[in-house]
Structure formats: C-alpha cells, structure tokens
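Task 17 of the worksheet. Students: predict the tertiary structure of the chain below and write it out as structure tokens. Keep your answer in the requested format; marks are given for formatting as well as content.
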Amino acid sequence: RTSERDYLVKVSSDADASALPLQVAALAHVAAHAPTLPTSRTVETLQGEALAELVSDGEQQTVWVTEWLPGALLSDQASLDIGTCEQLGEMLGALDQALLTFEDPRARRPIKWDLLRSEWIGAHLERVEAGWLRDAVEAIHEWHLAHQGALAELRRCVVHNDANDHNLLVATEGPLRVTGLIDFGDMCETAMVSEL
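Model answer:
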C-alpha cells in the first residue's frame, strides 16, 4: 500500500512455469483491447519485467505485483439481483470478445476444468453420492461423450474459465454492481460458450 494506490503481491512456487506468464500476457492483452474492464493490471519491476524471481529458503519463487481491485467477494453477499447477473454476463462477454484476438500456445494446456476435456469425470462417478446428483452428473457426462464431435466444432478462444462468486468482486457501497474479476489461473483455450 502506498499513499496513491494499493497493490497485491503474489509469490508462487507453482510447478506450472507457464501459468503466470500466460496470465500476465492475457491481462496485458485485455488492458490494451478492453481497458475499461475491471481486471488486474501488472506493475512492472524497475527493469520493466512483469515477473521477478527470488530465492527463499533455497527455493526459487516467482513474484508478481498487480494493482489492487476494490470490492468484496460476491460470495460474501446475502443475495444477488438480476441486474448484477446481467452486468456479469456483459462483462464476461466483453472479456471474451477482447480475448478472441489473444493467442498463446500456453493456453492450450490440458486442465481438468476445461469443459471440453471432461472425459476424466467418468472414472470418478462413484465418488458422487447415489441419488439425483449422481444421476445428473452421469447424464451430463453421457451427453458430453455422445456429442464430442459437435463440441469440437464450437467457436474457441481463451477464456477466464473460473468466473465464480469467489473470483468476482462487487461494490461495498451503494447498489450491488460488479467491480472486478480476479484469479485468471484456470484460463485456457476452449469453447467460448464455456464462460457462461
């Protein structure tokens, strides 16, 4: 925190060395193509680097500093109105529109949260308690397997892929409105409709 601005400092020893550079590149692209979207902005080092390296207790760490986004987590709100849902949909649509022109081979990574790569769920269905929830998961899984050809034809782009109530910030004063989208760590290239 300075007298002018607040910052977020992230220190990571993440084994996926491409995850942070991918986030930095995507956020820079969004800042250039959709500057009004409420996403983090990277603060570069004095040498002009987005990421810095340090060694702590003999372990290499990556340090990333971004500007702080104001707001409270949407998950902490007692209720959610339709206007806020519409605003969220518009923001995610604008984000994906900006990311349509973003290409990075690191985004083609195989992560379990990519809805087009959800075949792995089949091996874990027995972990879902028997009843309506397992029935629903099985039905969705079977539908997914039966429609893989059509799914592969869907319009693709890099998506945030994790716009849940723990990654959305809302105003702490006045009417409920979205003030930020955080945590781009699960982003990947997949079907654009997955963002919904």
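Marker's comment: The CA atoms of residues 123 and 141 lie 11 Å apart. The beta strands are 7-12, 51-56, 59-67, 72-73, 156-159, 168-170, 178-181, 188-191.
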